[in-house]
Each structure stands twice: as C-alpha cells, then as structure tokens.
Amino acid sequence: MPLINQSAQDHFWQQHYGPHFAPLLDSDNPPPEQAASVAQTKRLLEFFIADSEFRKALVDSPSEATRSRGLAADAQEVRLLWDLPYATLQTSLRIPTPPSVQLYRSFIQEKIAHRERLRARDCAPSQTPHRKWRERQINRCWTQLGEGRTRAIIHAPFAVELSKGCSVGCWFCGVSAEKKKEDFLYNEANTKLWQDSLRALGEIFGPAAAQGFCYWATDPLDNPDYERFCLDFARILGRFPQTTTAQAQKHIPRVRELLKVSREHGCTINRFSVLSIGAFRKLVEAFTAEELLFTELVTQNFEATMMQSNSGRARGSEKLAKKAEALQLQHSDEEPGTIACVSGFLLNMVDRKVKLVAPCPSSDEWPEGFWVFEEATFSSGAELGAVCQAMINRHMPTSLRHNDPVAFRPDFKFSATEEGFTLTSYYAKSTLGKMEAGQELGLLIAANQYGAGEIALSLERSHGIAPEQTYLELNSLFQQGYLHEEPRFFAQKREIREQAV
Ligand code: SF4
C-alpha cells in the first residue's frame, strides 16, 4: 500500500512507522484498504471490550465467535491485541507482527499524538497569564490525578451547555447532571447571543477557541438545534466541535448526518457513550465499522471491561464498587477521580451563566471533580467577554505576591529530608528543595501560616539567602502545581492576611 502523498505529515509517519502506513486521522481521503483494515480490527476489539459473551466465545473458538457476529477481522491474525499471554509469548519469540496489527497500532499512535498535541499546543490560550495558569493546572493534575488520568485530559479551553440538565440520567454521571429542564433554541435572539458569545470567546482564547465543545452536564442530542449551533461554531471559530452523546442509538439518521457534517467541517473524533449491551448491538448493526472509524465507543455497560471514574454520582456508590469487583480491580473510595477536561470556562446558554473551572479530584467539597473559581451571569457577547477577562485578571497571577499565603496542597504528605523535602500524594512522590536551606524552606511552607514575603525574609535572616532567590524557588513550586491553589482556601487566606496587615 503506497503512501498517497508526500506532505510533511506523511513523511513523519513514514519515518516512524515505515513506508506502508498513511495517516488516517487528518486525511480527507484515507486509503480505503488501510481504513477498512483498521476499522474492522477496531470493531472486533469493541466487541471484545463491550460484550462478556463474545470475550468467552473468542477464547473457545475465535473463528466461530467472529463469524456469528458478522465481524470481518481475522481474530487469530489480530490475537496480539486481545490475548495478553499470547502477545507476550509472540514478542519474546520475535515473531513478526501481522500488518493488520501494525496498522491498528499506528492508528492508535496517531490518536495519542493528536491528543498530546491538543493538550500541549492547540488548546493553549493566547494571553500569557491565561496560558501560564492553564499550564499550572496541568502540572498540578500530574501529581494529583495520576499519569493515566492526566494524559486523558486535554484541558480544553471551554465547554458550553446548550440545554439545562440532561434527559439520560446515567447512574455514573461524573458531573451529576440534573434532570432535563429546557433547551436553548436557535431563535433570532438566541442566535445573536450565541454568535456574539463565540466571537467573544474567540477574542479571549485566540485560535485555541476552536477546541471548545458544546456539552457538559448535558447530552448534545437533547437539543433539537444542536447541529445548527455547531455549524455557527465551525464558521466563527474554525472547526465543528467534538460530540459525545449517550443517545446515538435513538437517533440513527440524525447521527449519521452529524458524523458526516462534523468531519466535513474539521472535527477529528466523536464519541458514543454506550449504556447497555442492547444499545451496543443496535449501534453496531446500524453503523458499519468504516462509518465509525473516527468515532470512539465509550462502553459504559455493566458487561464491559471499562471502569467508571470515582466522581459525581458514581463516587462512593455501590454500583461502582460492584463494577470494580466484577473487573477484579483494586478500588478505593479515596481514589482521586474526575471526568472534567476543561481548564477554562464553562457556560450555560439557558441561564446565561459562566464559571471559571479546572479539574480536581472529586471530594465532599467538589463532588463533580472540578474547582469553580468564580461564577457570573452575562446577557450579551460583549458582557461575556468582559466577565471572562475580569476572571482572568483576578484569578490568574503569573507569580506569587508578597502577601500571598503559601502552603502545600493538602493532598500531599510532607517529609523533611537532609537535603530538602519530599511531597507524597496518592499517585506520586516528589523530591524537592535542593537549594541552600531547602529543608527550612519546606518547613516554612508546611507550617501553613506564612506569606511569600515572610518566608523570603526569614531565609534571608537565618541563612543570608537573597529574597529574589527564595521567590524564584517559591514561584517554581507554585508553577509546578505543588502549592495550595484551591479557590476557596486561597481567597479566604488572602483575605485574612490582607485584613491583618
Ligand atoms: S453522563 Fe452524560 S448523558 Fe449521562 S447523565 Fe451525565 S451528562 Fe447525561
């Protein structure tokens, strides 16, 4: 299968994955044979993940299991992808990997590279304070939510709800969506507000605004005008937003058209959330494997091997514990969970509200797995722009000020060491403070009662360290997300300190 063109991107893929693979994800015209091979392998694996009966049948008789489900992939040929002991043995014997497996793996690598690009570059806002604030939230998440979960979060710039509430009512809803009440419809007044709001978001974020999306604690298909809003989004911000819906099986012709139009307008990946094995069967019957090549099936049904996040309605629930038991997974109610993927703004167009948010572990205080720094209302695009800018100015300092309270994040266990200190969270242990008087610096921060200026002064008095040096160290810890920046704590502490001065 030759490469279809010689663009720089093709060259990248050729260098990394050999001359046989063309990129699929961003291609307007993917090579049909390659696309079909990947789509068929993907479908077999979707059956494997979603359907416990299929998993059993596949082990007993691979060809019969695939034949009876009408799957075109050769289960034996792609066995490396679904049978771990077999894959380990084949690899140790250096048996060549079949082309269909290589093609599938290169597609997955393409998707991973796409996600990394979104987080590292495409979702980054233009304004420096805003960009640094977002980077700090990402840094914090590495040690607070764990590498696996953090890699999956792109820290999108904004999300917009086009309804109030959600009609689906999933038991595991990670953001505890309320019951569906009302839709924001595409009438004259709303269209003007919508288009002006998109322009305002475009000005606030720059090109990153194209990576926003139009659902949160809502299902996009609840709104009958969803596609019209998304076409405005594509026209004004440059890209049709990604859709995730749990209702695809109820709206097959509508969804078929949505997949087509979204791809035509620059959307790369869409998602179906699959709530039952019946819905899964309906979807794979209605859509060919090729039609869903760029649509991920998020299999949330009980038979699936996928585990829900410990946040929102799922947090601490009996159903979540049962699911963990069925999958023989270690599960703890303390496990940091979230499904929030926005470090930026969350808008609801029905009640015209905007919040500044960032992901955090779900807790009693933040059950939905995201911090809310501030909330405001707006009645026009211009007002939305002004409100967002004011929040950026208020909540996104690029460095610590003299009177700012300084403390470590409360999820860290602090230990002083000879050379400095260590901070241990649920997922990570960081060794820090490798500077002169590093241990004392750590102890002053861990005391949770000093401001940045007091710490700098104390180290100057006790060790003759220049205050600029201490500020440099403190700001590095701040930007790496080690310091307490939880909105309520930070605001309260600063207020107390300012009153005391
Ligand atoms: S998970 Fe999605 S579809 Fe389900 S209730 Fe929550 S918002 Fe609605």
Fold and architecture overview:
This protein has 501 residues and is of the alpha/beta class. It has three domains: 8-108, no CATH class; 123-395, TIM Barrel (Alpha-Beta Barrel), CATH 3.20.20; 405-500, Alpha-Beta Complex (Outer Surface Protein A, domain 3), CATH 3.90.930.60. Helices cover 45% and strands 12% of the residues. It has helices at residues 8-17, 32-50, 52-60, 62-68, 84-92, 99-122, 128-144, 147-152, 188-205, 226-237, 252-264, 277-286, 318-326, 381-395, 438-446, 452-463, 467-479, 487-500; strands spanning 156-161, 163-164, 182-183, 244-245, 270-274, 295-299, 342-348, 353-359, 370-377, 405-406, 413-416, 421-424, 429-432, 450-451. The strands form five sheets. It has a four-stranded mixed β-sheet. A three-stranded parallel β-sheet has the order 4-5-6. α2 crosses α3, α9 packs parallel to α10 (226-237) and α16 crosses α17 (467-479). The longest helix is centred in the first third of the chain and has 24 residues, at 99-122. The chain is globular and about 80 Å long. The N and C termini lie far apart (72 Å). The site of iron/sulfur cluster has 10 residues, from loops.
